[in-house]
## 1
Amino acid sequence: MSDAFRDRIDIALTVNGEPVEARVPAGRHLVDFLRLDLGLTGSHAGCEHGVCGACTVKVDGEAVRGCLMLAAQADGAEVWTLEGLTQSGVIRDLQDAFVARNALQCGYCTPGMLTSIEELLNRGGVPERAEIREHLSGNYCRCTGYEAIVDAVESVARARAEKGAA
Amino acid sequence: MKALAGGYAQARDLRHALDLLGQADGMGRVLAGGQSLIAAMNMRLTSGDLLVDISRIAELRGVALDGGWLRIGALTRHAEIGRDALIARHAPLLTRAVGHIAHSAIRNRGTIGGSLAHADPAAEFPACVLALEAVLHLDGPDGRRDVAAEDFFLGVFETAIEEGEILTGISVPVAQDGERHVLREAARRSGDYALAGLCLLRRTAGHRLAAFGVGPCPILARGAMEKLDHGDIDGAVAALSGEIDPPGDTQASAAYRRHLAGVLLRRALSDLEGEQS
């Protein structure tokens, strides 16, 4: 094998605002890096082929699949997981709405769900229910039947819009 | 399962990427957005690859207008294609395709070049570039060559890209005045690969019809195009049925996909009429 290719790669990035340096195996995906190397178990590894959405995290401001990005590719990136989003308080209203409306049961999908919704809410305005459903089509929930989740998103979008207008 | 990569290297620029591929001794694999490749690696459909990560090469990303052509960098992401004003104006078929590709988080990282090079038979962009008569640009150790979309897709996951080459860009002829583009597909769930799909263009010179999910690679339905040019819709549906070669699997039988193709063609034509009114 050529020396140009490494099976362990040195990376430096920020995770939830904190600088992190690590040496990662070439094939390790981002969500395993977060869970196994950094102990941030808020991001869940589900299907590991991009279908279920449980691993959704924020990378450089965008929601992405943590299982479809290598940790090596996160060199220099700004990563936010549910732990960071929770601590910073940016989705407090959304988390409260999830509890109030029973928008979760087992909780496995919830971190990915919240991270995907955060991106949708950041666009502003009050999305139609169909748009909410479409945006969440890549986040599987096997407990709730989605209705309560859509309710929670809609209520937070409304509340934020009213607060913005006031 | 977990991916098993043979090694990883991040390319600084195109020259570096080509050098890395050359050094990989046949084990090189170009990594762009990774939305298909990393899934395949996680499932161990491929292992031991020497990954050449081109995703940071800025020169391969972005959209520009160049005379009668739209130049689209291979690393332009689906989400960027979906919100690009030049594409919406000059190649609206691509804008329409984006909403059908997987889900928001995947569109944030997946690239048009990656989708074309991967050549999934049920993917949208391969059929789009076929319908649009796009030209694909391949860079290799001996320089650049251009391949027409019609000559690019050879079979299931098989393209004209040779060992050591990288798909670097796509040129799409800009839509003429009055040109109409529609895309219709049927999938079991939003974001799933299509059971069957169609890209339909109406130009002054005639119709262009490309089908996906109904054969080993996207199909230009010439017989149906000719019937459409003569206003023969029933004839076009019959011709399309004969031109496609749909697979049967757990998602849908071949006969169902063939039926869907006809239904989608009628709906696409109805979309075209609606657009003009």
## 2
Amino acid sequence: MNNMTLYVSRDSPVHRVDPMTKLLFVFISITSTYILSDHLAVLGILLFTFFILLIGKVFKSILPVIGVSFLLIASIIIVQGFFHPDRATVLFEIGPIAIYKEGFLIAFLITLRVVNMVAAFGVLILTTKPDDLVEALLQKGLSPKFGYVLLSVLQIIPQMVALTGKITDAQRARGMETEGGIWMRFKSFLPLLGPVVLNSLTETRERSIALEIRGFNAKGNRTFLYERKNYRYSVPFRIALIAFFLAVIAWRVIS
Amino acid sequence: MSVLRVVNLKYKYPDSHRFALNDISFTVEKGEFLGIVGMNTSGKTTLCYALSGLVPHFFKGAYGGDVYIGDMDVLSHEISEITAKVGLVFENPFLQMTGAKFTVYDEIAFGLENQGVPRDVMHERIRESMKLLDIEGLQGKNPFSLSGGQMQRVAIASVIAMQPDVLILDEPTSQLDPEGAEEVFRVVEKLADEGMTIIMAEQKMEKLAAYADRILLLYDGKLIEDGKPEEVFSREDLNEFGVEPPVYVKISRALGLRNEMSGLYPISLEQMPTERDIQFHPVTKTNNGNTTSELIVRDLHFGYEKGQDVIRGLNVTLSGEPIAIIGQNGAGKTTFVKLLKALLKPDTGEILLNGAPLSETTAAKLASRIGLIFQNPNDQIFKHKVIDEVMFGPLNIGQTGEEALANAKEMLALVGLADKADENPYDLSLAERKMVAVASILAMDTDVVIFDEPTMGQDVRGKSKVQEIIHSLHEKGKLVICILHDMDFVADTFGRTIIFSNGGMLFDGPTREAFAQEEALRLARVEQPNITKLVQRLGYDRIILRATELI
């Protein structure tokens, strides 16, 4: 059954880490790759993120997402490799087009950063139950409305996929061709966007009634059903992460 | 003191010129069970919204008069304060799940967390309400993985846990299959027995007649009558307000059985007199002899996941008179019609349309020959204007713009929505959207028309319109196949019935014989039509399908 989340339910050490520590990891992992401009260092960080995904037993689930971002990555490589202002050394040629080394290296660095960003968010989203994450943030003082929006964003991709399937069926049922080659699929995808968004909005209105009925906008203090268990290693992990981050900044300043 | 008091309530939705509620006054005492009846658009839902503060706080609009809950007036308090005292459950079970929680247990906690209920009290109340609604076994499940009946019970539990003084139910079973509806009615009865004040809008009059202490009859935003169920349901002019009395009243009226003292008709089985002899003249629908298209299904197998067959080896020939398919949710009925329409591809076996295998074509190419009206119109409708929605199919299958427009207008008139052609489908009620979906398929003038639960959410008038449509399609020589949960409608409309269970057919034959198959009906978890049950309980060993068969 479709659970409408990206969360992958597994039993792993990564799943047990508390959401705030994971959030800190995401932040530090991503910013570090932007502070550093050394290919090897960035590659190292990326490999470490992959390593965490492997421990969390969710490495396979991140691959399709990286696959989707490949379109973006490919365009970066082409544009940077082809047009970078410092281009001087031809790396290789594809027919009449020359790809230059300088641009290619920059493109490669950006690619590593993008992949790392996707993977780091993967660590957070694939191994943390969305409600746990949002509740951890609420307890830190985030407004419940913003928390709900965040939660909806986390569910939006699986929801859109489900809705798209339904509407495609509706269109096929009335004579719109969606089967066939990639061009046919692409052509039939565009008219889908309108209805998918419109449908989501209608559902949103009714769901907001459901929220109102359950006192979502109540003023006064909220309580939480579960006590957050303090994760045993969260302090050492956080210290390690911050120490790493300080080292990265220091290295950057010195070199 | 009254739990609820409504004084001269008037209300208009924003951008509307018509009063959705027009000068309504009534009171509700603690522990009362109040039923609200009326056709669609009579104002039932709006009244439910007004009692729970959504009108005017959420919907805005023009508001006059007063609603008091205890001594609190709705107008000057916020929704969150009102919903602490009034719980509301509405039609669509799916949209009542907040989506913020991922287990049933946590879902019930959502409202309590918002109210700031202490943790230990919260756990206690959640357990209590789960017990009351008999959903303890579901507590670890994801709410979205449940069936409609289960989801609706979770919705009621979530509201009950907040300990409201009044529980309002707005057609809580209209989107459920018979068993799901029965689950919900069972818990409503239990809550009523425990002394909860309940207000319920409902189309299933037999149920209201059985539970309600009082009935409000609404029509066009006005309160027509506020009285005992016997009084309201004995009104001779009830049909003019788009309300059908319980089957017992219909039969008693046909037989002239009135309580001599009060002049009222019996409204429940217990009140029916037993001494009266009844004569029968069963009417068998005759096939009009028109030849229709023919669908032949041979050894059909299908599963969404490997090793889990939803359809298990079906063999059937569909042609001739209109055919009803009945059976429990999850029996594979919808999957079956999607296979007939080639929206799904069989794993093994084949389907032939007039001798040609469906596997050689696509759903889109079939569009001009087989039309399928989806169960949920929201899954089917995707245009911003009703007329565009209805013209979408005809244009796709090659009708010219003029033809398509003419067809679309004709079909909208047929379903009674001619004046709504330029509106946005999403501004219409669910029942109207369902009719838009019907019109958009009929406009394609296909040889085969498949309906997936056309009576869902329809009032009496809607149902009789659907019935007319089915008859006229048959007259025109079309093959009509219909999935239904409304057994009274099946009995009244169809000559041939297929009982579906667990991916296979338990019975295929004349409707009168179908409703005699007690074992098959039990396995498929469907009930006999109300009138059939009634005649049998009165001691006659006959299968009666319509009130007109009694003398």
